[in-house]
Write a structure and sequence with these properties.
By secondary structure, this protein is mainly alpha-helical. The chain has one domain: Winged helix-like DNA-binding domain superfamily/Winged helix DNA-binding domain (Arc Repressor Mutant, subunit A), CATH 1.10.10.10. The chain has four helices and two strands, in the order H-E-E-H-H-H. It has a two-stranded antiparallel ribbon. Helix 2 crosses helix 4. It is globular and about 40 Å long.
């Protein structure tokens, strides 16, 4: 199931400057995460964006979880 969800996250240099997006649509992962972190529910997002599906939201969350599974984080010089 996880692999099926992660296949919904695509990246193409011609779409959203190569940022990870949902199913080749112009919905970057970061945009959906921002909506969720602002307090929107999955149902509200799906109501506002007709071409998204519940599994798209789950894929975004799984993708973000995978990105956070790093061994260490180093501060970049400012």
């Amino acid at each position: 199931m996880e692999n099926n969800l992660l296949q919904r996250i695509t990246h193409n240099p011609d779409i959203c400057h190569g940022k990870p997006c949902i199913r080749g649509l112009r919905y970057p992962v970061e945009f959906i995460l921002e909506l969720l972190s602002s307090g929107m529910t999955t149902e509200e997002i799906l109501a506002d964006y007709d071409d998204l599906e519940t599994d798209d939201i789950l894929a975004v969350l799984l993708f973000a979880a995978r990105l956070s599974q790093v061994k260490s984080i180093h501060k970049l010089a400012s």
